[in-house]
Amino acid sequence: MTRRSDRALPTLTSPWRIWAKTLPIFLTLITISALGIFNYQKTSSSIVAATLYALRTSEVGKRELGEEIYFRDMWPWIWGEMNQLHGREHMGFGVKGTRGRGWMRFRSVRVGRMGKFETKEWSLETEDGRKIQLMDEGREDPFLNTALEAEGSD
Fold it and tell me: What Pfam family is a match, any one (predicted)?
């Protein structure tokens, strides 16, 4: 042993200093991961699938966006609230087709605890700023038929 026994001890770094450096990085990663998980849950929900399907089969949607209507971005971000428990669905996301791109909005509410959802807004805003209502006054709620078909198949 060539070390001297009366040498100076090394300085210790405080554990709080290490925590102060790594905690913001950890919290940022947790926040980004949680937001990604919640958005994935919204993306794979039946509400988003139904509205996207209804847009694909809509004559107005085909006329404005063309064929092959799908999410605009590779990793779509669904903005808004989807709270079926409390009867509030208000969301929007980017869509694209072979002819153009746009932003689809959907808002539906449920009046009463056991009431049915009623679509209040279903619109498409094109890239040139036009806002097109996808629910005609003369046509019924397109989402009501799919709900009735689902109830009949049970």
Answer: Coa1
